Predict the structure.
Amino acid sequence: MTALTLYNSLSRSLEAFAPLDPARGVRVYSCGPTVYNYAHLGNLRAYVFTDTLSRVLTWKAKENGWGALTHVINITDVGHLTSDADAGDDKMEAAAKAQAKSIWDIAAHYTAAFKQNIADLNIRQPTRWSVATDHIEEMIDFAKKIAPEHCYELDSGLYFDTSTVADYGRLAGAQDDVREGRIDPVAGKRHPQDFAIWRKSPPGEQRQMEWDSPWGMGAPGWHLECSVMSIKYLGAPFDIHTGGIDHREIHHPNEIAQNQAFCGCSDSGAHFWMHNNFLVDRGGKMSKSKGGFTTLQSLIDAGVHPLAYRLLCIQAHYRSELEFSAENLAAALTRLKRLVMTVANLKARANGEGSAPQTWLDRLDEAVSDDLNTPKALPILDELLADKRTSVEDRLAALARFDEVLGLNLLTIGRGDLRVRPANASITAEEIEARLTERKEARANKDFARSDAIRDELALAGVEVMDGDPLGWDWKPAL
Ligand code: AMP
Ligand code: ZN
């Protein structure tokens, strides 16, 4: 059994992790999606990371006798502006206007789509989804408490004075460099870094989402919800706060400032702050506001099983940038197929139940205890499955334990599941099989012109024929 080490963005170093209150269990808060659009694959990388964290913490809890993990993910359905600098439109209001729908419909639609993505990626449900608009009263109470000493009011709203807390921005990287380039568009702010706690509705404009408050009709600033909901459900300080690495620069420093103001102390509110790196494509960081992003559903529609994307994510360390490309995705799909075939062969040979050998569990434990090093754990899984000195039954029993952490569903998905038919394929799965049989006959009769013609026809229907595939796969979606 290896002690768990995690990278803490606060100290910019690896630290030994132990729960603040082992009996109560580890408490984790993850910044959730803003539901004004579909999550892109980059966003989903953030939740594959939090799921890996939650699975490893659950594994370590069993090993160490800690209480059950409490994991909260929020849903931001209000307040996130098109710019981090408190300027621009509310993203939710803008989406509602653009789609001529009510903001509540927009939120419901994209929340449901996000939860479907979570299920498709075999990401476990958090203990609680907390929705920002369910907590407006509590946000107002929080703001009332910190306002006298830490906030000032302008025509546009209530602002947090970042000079009133110790070490503002200590979490951010070279924060002065980051901020220097930012234009401060809000007139009257005392410091460019000051941020909105409450945004008043502009005079004469009625927003779809607005609430009454001591500072007038309006809506909370984006950072407020996470301080309020994390403290409400987890207490302060709690163990781990997560988010994408962009949150290390503005959103999390602002949460920390609010938490310090609320407790009247210098505590950041969480013991560890952890951040996943970006998913990038050749055009740079994937982002929702850039448009043209790739959704998980678009992969499924292209005939790629969503767990291939999960595998792509866990092949990389969460703190490394990960490049997304059709080639990388296709390679992950092939690796997943190989794993599924290997497991199918073992299952066919197994006779009764085995038990997971401790040496294999120790090796997995050592890999993931090293700051969730899943890229190190995957080759150990390959070795385990191929290890002839371990009985087939014991290998399968160990695999079940590995999959508690990796979440690839290797004991339940089969060959058939991986054959996701492309949504635009103009041909049914049965037709594909029939054409392939026909093609096999043509080849047996050395009618290569006919065989090539069938291959080209299938390619036009979005199906790529694989001749001599070592895994015995006859076709795959054309990416
Ligand atoms: P949002 O819905 O924009 O609030 O983002 C949800 C989560 O995705 C946050 O934790 C972001 O930091 C994270 N995120 C955004 N873009 C990327 C990306 N390209 N790669 C990885 N994580 C990202
Ligand atoms: Zn947050």
Q: What stands out?
A: Residues 31, 33-34, 42-43, 45-46, 243-244, 246-247, 276, 278-279, 285-288 surround adenosine monophosphate (ligand 1) (CB under 6 Å). The first helix runs from residue 41 to 64. The CA atoms of residues 167 and 258 lie 12 Å apart. Residues 5-289 form a domain with the Rossmann fold fold (CATH 3.40.50.620).
